[in-house]
Design goal:
With 211 residues, the protein is of the alpha/beta class. It contains ten helices and five strands, in the order βαβααβαβαβααααα. It folds into two domains: 13-140, Rossmann fold; 153-209, Arc Repressor Mutant, subunit A.
Length: 211
């Protein structure tokens, strides 16, 4: 049975957005020292202008975002990211944070809120967690896309047979209901198993239930 090729390695980048040049340089050097690819931006608008349209939804990695910046604030940037359907995990850093701001940021999806000055290891641990979350989300999205492609490869009749098979109907019953020969149903069923890339009814039911 044909199986999909090994998926390409996910190229994750940590996007650091801060108006403090010293912070940008120090964080970039920190990530370089542990082999984590990164990119720096002196303000939120530059990041948004650099990654427009579909490209921002295709990004992998995470964002380290300062809260208080001239122009667009970190919180406003977070709102923009949500509207653009950007799935990158956000880690907020700030020297002026307070509890209400942290709560608001977390409610809107930020995974962490760290106050300056922070320990380097604390930030690295948060970034590693964010990258793991992002990797898991990309793998889930990739799997859903693959399953959707398999479903779309089925003919209308094969989809009909598949629904009846996962409902527990025997080939003989399906053949009678559809006014087809049992042999024809067996062929359709075999095609379904092949196109859906499964070896058992249990696997087929599992895939069919995934949304």
């Amino acid at each position: 049975m044909k199986r999909n090729a090994t998926p390409p390695v996910l190229k994750q980048v940590v996007h650091i957005i801060d108006d403090d040049e010293a912070v940008l340089d120090s964080l970039s050097m920190l990530l370089d020292s542990v082999g984590i690819k990164n990119a720096i931006y002196s303000n939120a608008q530059t990041f948004l202008d650099t990654h427009q349209g579909e490209s921002i939804r295709a990004l992998a990695g995470c964002i380290v975002l300062d809260v208080r910046m001239p122009g667009m604030s970190g919180m406003e940037c977070q709102q923009q990211l949500e509207q653009l359907k950007c799935s990158l995990p956000v880690i907020f850093i700030t020297g002026h944070g307070d509890v209400p701001m942290a709560v608001e940021a977390m409610k809107k999806g930020a995974i962490e809120f760290i106050q300056k000055p922070f320990r380097e290891q604390e930030l690295l641990d948060c970034i590693q967690h964010a990258l793991e979350l992002n990797k898991a989300e990309h793998e889930r999205a990739s799997r859903l896309l693959d399953i959707d492609k398999r479903r779309k490869s089925l003919t209308k009749r094969e989809k009909e047979v598949m629904q009846r098979v996962i409902a527990g109907q025997a080939n003989k019953v399906i053949a009678c209901d559809l006014n087809l020969s049992q042999r024809t149903i067996e062929i359709h069923r075999s095609n379904v198993m092949d196109k859906m890339q499964v070896n058992s009814l249990a696997e087929l039911v599992t895939l069919a239930l995934i949304k």
